[in-house]
Write a structure and sequence with these properties.
Number of domains of chain B: 1
Structural class of chain B: mainly alpha
Distance between the termini of chain B: 56 Å
Oligomer: heterodimer
Strand content of chain B: under 5%
Strand content of chain A: under 5%
Structural class of chain A: mainly alpha
Strand order of the largest sheet of chain B: 1-2
Radius of gyration of chain B: 19 Å
Strand order of the largest sheet of chain A: 1-4
Order of helices and strands of chain B: HHHHEEHHHHHHHH
Radius of gyration of chain A: 21 Å
Largest interface: A-B, 46 and 43 residues
Order of helices and strands of chain A: HHHHHHEEEHHHHEHHHHH
Largest sheet of chain B: 2 strands, antiparallel
Shape of chain A: globular
Distance between the termini of chain A: 20 Å
Number of helices of chain A: 15
């Protein structure tokens, strides 16, 4: 009689450090890779645009999860940091004339610096105080981009039109191929971002982040440099966020302050809560879920608008209500999010017919 | 001089309302340890409940106030029971997020039922103004300060003297010790949320009367954070001082410097306070142990 697997047991440190332990995981990875390659050839432009938005959201959510989920430093300043990345990259490339990849890289660096600066209160504050401090940083950054003193950011227009992306001799083409070409750029960057984040938590630095989250005083006692760990977490996280902001700007080709409000911060927090705090895969699931949700609600409301016109009229309010309700429901019923649900499903089949 | 007097009265009125809103916030934090990001939405819901009773149902003002208070109490209790109680013992991040979700839900519900345009509500307080030292001072702002002062005094006396108030302070101090003395912690939690909803209702109705009953009431509510950080998260007198300081500060900045800057100056002050004295002026310094 064949033995039944009871779980995954590691017998060496090397096997525990591996990103993938079982054959099923390799199979799923291969399927995902095939899916990523096939998708742009079968989807139309509308769906490609949604998928492109998801890629950007994935980068931002992974970044936020490094800070909130892995290091335990709650941040409501996501929108502000996205704005820093977006404005910096656009001003550097379009107005100063740097090549776009360089301007994006500089924008990422600048966002890391700004993020670290606003992380400074995090050295003394935690939990709710930090939430309030980052709320303040969000309000302050939002105010400055909205007010735009001296017209430095938008030259007095209130928005910036961004030139079509150009990298060396390559230029993104007309509308018919626009989404298709962006798909490849964003897919590669998002996959790289996920791989980076995944590997970060196999290093000592990443593990020190988790130690700070679990018990910061105890972490300090076993030799984690608390100042360094917290500030690095802010820097790493906001550089991901800055990258997402810069990509948003170049992809959507217009930058306004409305894209970087407190609601955006909350949306990203919702992504990592729904996906699963402290899990890179969770951030990805959350980004996919929260980006598809409004599309789904819109389609349902439009489909039902014939019989229930109330739904279509109240669409924004209904979307917000569903968002709020989903955040609450996940926190109460499954605080560890979609990632945990997925794990449970896998465990159920792996150890079947036993319950655990 | 007349500008100064005007700004002073406007600032005091704003500050008094902020103090009321912040009072509810501090109540919840003190008794249950929850940071309530939905406090602004409590103002919003309170103002709309009163509007429903007063304008839609055409109740007399006193009955409308009673209706509003009853509904606010119920909402507070229901929210505590259904949403916050399952979250007892969770990490601060989760609790903050659940109140953020609650705030989105409440605001969306109000928008669904009442739309986004401001509601027209007949003035509750007289719109006349009095002349004093060369300035025309609107009477309703003075009355707002007066009403808020009365309500705040009542709440303070409630905590000092009444049985329930003392029980609440006991729970805030040490939940387990309070339990062993026979205090029902659950009832105190429910009471904290109900009282917070009521104080927010009063703040919302007053604010709706001097500005307008619309969605902006909720964004005004975000200003409770600078107020409570200045005063100390767990201090009732701190909310009064903090509220008045923030109200006056934003009115003076708006009058003398730049109205846009006035919306953000409280947050700049907030960051400075957090860097210098994180526990606020009257807050209790906590020592943390592993």
């Amino acid at each position: 009689m064949a033995a039944t697997a009871t779980g995954i047991h590691h017998r060496s440190y090397a096997s525990e450090l591996r990103l993938r332990a079982t054959r099923a995981e390799y199979v799923r990875l291969a399927l995902l890779a095939v899916l990523l390659v096939v998708v742009p050839f079968v989807m139309d432009n509308y769906w490609l645009s949604i998928i492109n938005t998801i890629f950007i959201a994935v980068i931002g959510a992974v970044g936020l999860n490094i800070l909130v989920g892995y290091t335990g430093q709650i941040s409501l300043g996501q929108g502000g940091f996205l704005a820093v990345g977006a404005y910096a990259s656009v001003i550097l490339s379009d107005r100063i004339g740097l090549p776009t990849p360089l301007s994006i890289a500089l924008a990422v660096a600048l966002t890391a610096v700004v993020g670290t600066f606003f992380g400074l209160p995090g050295l003394r504050l935690k939990g709710l105080y930090l939430a309030i401090a980052t709320l303040a940083s969000q309000q302050i950054i939002e105010f400055f981009i909205r007010r735009d003193y001296g017209g430095f950011l938008t030259e007095g227009r209130g928005y910036i039109n961004v030139d079509r992306l150009e990298v060396g001799p390559f230029k993104i083409g007309a509308r018919s191929v626009f989404e298709f070409q962006w798909y490849w750029i964003l897919a590669v960057i998002a996959v790289l971002a996920v791989i980076c984040a995944r590997n970060l938590f196999r290093t000592g630095l990443g593990r020190s982040f988790m130690a700070v989250r679990d018990q910061d005083i105890a972490a300090e006692a076993i030799g984690v440099n608390l100042t360094r760990a917290k500030l690095t977490a802010f820097a790493v996280s906001s550089s991901f966020v800055g990258l997402a902001g810069a990509l948003t700007a170049h992809y959507s080709e217009v930058v306004t302050w409305e894209k970087f409000t407190l609601e955006v911060s909350i949306l990203y927090l919702a992504m990592i809560i729904v996906g699963g705090l402290g899990s890179v895969a969770g951030a990805v699931y959350g980004a996919v879920f929260m980006t598809l949700l409004p599309v789904l609600i819109r389609n349902v409301a439009n489909a039902a608008s014939g019989s229930v016109p109330f739904l279509a009229d109240q669409l924004p309010a209904i979307q917000n209500a569903v968002f709020g309700a989903i955040i609450i429901a996940f926190l109460i019923f499954e605080p560890r999010g979609l990632d945990r649900i997925w794990q449970r499903m896998k465990d159920y089949f792996r150890v079947w017919p036993f319950r655990y | 001089m007349s500008t100064f007097l005007n700004l002073l009265v406007y600032g005091l009125a704003d500050g008094a309302i902020l103090a009321l809103a912040a009072l509810g916030f501090v109540l919840i934090y003190k008794a249950t340890g929850v940071i309530n990001f939905a406090q602004g939405e409590f103002l919003l819901v309170g103002a709309y409940m009163f509007y429903t009773a007063f304008v839609v149902l055409r109740l007399p003002m006193v009955l409308a106030v009673v209706f509003g208070v009853v509904v606010a109490t119920l909402i507070g209790i229901v929210i505590e029971r259904l949403i916050l109680r399952p979250m007892v013992g969770e990490s601060p991040i989760s609790i903050i997020m659940v109140t953020i979700g609650l705030s989105m839900l409440l605001r969306a519900l109000v928008q669904m039922f009442y739309g986004t345009s401001p509601m027209s509500q007949p003035p509750l307080l007289p719109r006349t103004s009095i002349s004093f030292a060369g300035a025309t001072i609107p009477l309703n702002r003075l009355l707002v300060v007066l009403i808020a002062a009365v309500v705040l005094t009542l709440f303070t006396q409630f905590f000092r003297r009444s049985r329930h108030g003392i029980a609440m302070r006991a729970v805030a101090d040490d939940q387990q010790a309070a339990m062993t003395m026979g205090i029902s912690v659950r009832r105190i939690f429910a009471m904290a949320w109900a009282l917070a909803a009521v104080s927010a209702l009063i703040a919302g109705v007053l604010l709706g009367d001097i500005s307008a009953v619309d969605q902006n009431l909720a964004s005004f509510g975000l200003l409770v954070f600078p107020v409570v950080i200045l005063g100390g998260l767990d201090s009732v007198p701190g909310t009064i001082v903090g509220g008045l300081v923030m109200g006056l500060l934003s009115q003076f900045v708006s009058g003398y410097l730049d109205p846009g800057l006035a919306t953000v100056i409280p947050y700049i002050v907030l960051v400075l306070i957090l860097l210098v004295r994180p526990y606020g002026i009257f807050g209790e310094t906590r020592i943390e142990r592993v």
